[in-house]
Fold this sequence. Notes:
- It is a single chain.
- A hairpin with a 7-residue loop joins β4 (about 80-90) and β5.
- The protein has 1 helix and 12 strands, in the order αββββββββββββ.
- The longest helix is centred in the N-terminal third of the chain and has 16 residues, at about 1-15.
- It has one domain (about 1-200): monomeric porin ompg (Porin, Beta Barrel).
- It starts with a helix and ends with a strand.
- The protein is mainly beta.
- The chain has a 12-stranded antiparallel beta barrel with strand order 1-2-3-4-5-6-7-8-9-10-11-12.
Amino acid sequence: MKKQSLILILVCSLCIASNVFAAPSTQGTTGNIDTPSSDVLRPGQYHLGWYHLNEKNKVVFGVNLMKRLEMSASQQDEKTQVNLKYAIREEGVLTPGLAIGIDDISDVRARSAYVVTSKGLPWGIRVHAGIGSGRYDGPFGAIEKRLMPKTAGGRFPDTSFCIERVDHKMNYGLRLSLSPGLKAEVGLRDGKNFVGLTYNYY
């Protein structure tokens, strides 16, 4: 009986960790701060967001095009970047998710291809690891940790902390769920403060 209870707790922990605060990154694609995760928006889903980065405003948007395929975009300084991400394998209880993508397809700033894997772990932890060209400049990674217990419907005070490394730089951020789908973000990106507000429609 104790063994069965332990297995049930472990499975629940994995499921919870693998669904930690999906939201758009500052690039528009579903992910962390500047890095993507293996998650993609599902049919009927979309997300949008606003970030204040480097004393400038940035607007992001993402939508599901077809099963496992996400298209997203970001606009700053009147320049629009379009991204595509495809989930090769969805994350399971014991298996990591795997996705490939291209940021900035039209090469407005820096076209960047990547592959990324994500896996939820017990105790509200989730890890992401990938490698890419362009703005990624090699390997990148991120770790998420849920700081506050998960509440029904993803409402306040659900909070997670993220630390990531991309382009040989470190980023840190807090993601706070205000209500179902609505999240506020604050942190340090390349040594500078940033804030954001995002919304996911499920």
